[in-house]
Please model this.
Amino acid sequence: MARFEMTGAEMAPLAGSVAPAQGFFELGILYATGRDVELDLVSAHKWLNIAAVKGNAEAAQYRQELAREMSASAVAEAQRAAREWLRTH
Model:
């Protein structure tokens, strides 16, 4: 499995005074909309999942909506990526 690292545009929402859960939420929204990054629903789900785990209730709602648009295998891939990221950070 590929390791996901945060670089470039991924780090921007986490800079400054943004609460970590909010930063992860914003990162998920960037990937879900393709704004400033390539559209990637797996990455969007991953970051929304991490935001939800960190306490952002709005992220949990968006993650559910996003999952409805994804295949079961894509959701599973996103969940594995989120678990791996949480395990290593």
